[in-house]
């Protein structure tokens, strides 16, 4: 019995160590940190990194997915943000962080279908192996990270929600992401740098 308990204890340590190695629950970036670039597969089969956007002034990195009702509710607003700001140098880069083994409807094949259905004009990338979202500290879908391209690298300027009403776009009072992008492009201080992301937890 004692040997069995010891073996179980060793097994628990091994499991915990493996999760610690993955660092899935780290705090991630804070406003002011420099975000590491990535190279992830887009729904069109190409590999996309931030470095590809040589003329960009920044990026709106949005962790989102096919299946979360909150993410689905925000799809049209994410599309609108990309259309509004891509010409100003701040494109949307959407990343699906979910584990498709846990949520099969978030598989790469399903991502391709969803992107086609909605007419996504921005990259929709798969965080294969779930290596990127822990670095950013994304916790939910959708979860936004506004980056500004600087001489130091891609500096995080805003983290959180898109706006203050996921249920009804017409009832939004505060457009957190738009306000942050506008301030960043104008060289002004962003008044609200952090908000709570409202959405489904990322499936690991």
Describe this entry's structure for a reader.
- The chain is of the alpha+beta class and 204 residues long.
- It has a single domain (28-201), classed as Glutaredoxin, CATH 3.40.30.10.
- The protein has five helices and ten strands, in the order H-E-E-E-E-H-E-H-E-H-E-E-E-H-E.
- The chain has an eight-stranded mixed sheet. It has a two-stranded antiparallel sheet with strand order 7-10.
- The longest helix has 21 residues, at 2-22.
- It is globular.
Topology:
Layout: H1 2-22, E1 34-35, E2 40-42, E3 47-48, E4 58-63, H2 69-85, E5 92-96, H3 108-118, E6 124-126, H4 133-136, E7 140-141, E8 143-150, E9 153-160, H5 176-186, E10 200-201
Parallel strand pairs: 4-5, 5-6
Antiparallel strand pairs: 1-9, 2-3, 2-6, 4-8, 7-10, 8-9
Count of runs of 4 or more consecutive helical residues:
5
Assigned CATH architecture? 3-Layer(aba) Sandwich
Distance between the termini: 33 Å
Order of helices and strands: HEEEEHEHEHEEEHE
How many beta-strand segments? Answer: 10
Strand content: 15-25%
- Low-confidence spans: 1-25
CATH superfamily: Glutaredoxin
* Overall geometry: globular
What structural class do the secondary elements suggest?
alpha+beta
Give the domain tally. 1
Enter the CATH topology name: Glutaredoxin
Q: What's the story with the biggest beta sheet?
A: 8 strands, mixed
Output the radius of gyration.
18 Å
What is shown here, in short?
The protein is 31% helix and 20% strand. It is an alpha+beta fold and 204 residues long.
Name the descriptors:
204 residues, alpha+beta, 8-stranded mixed sheet
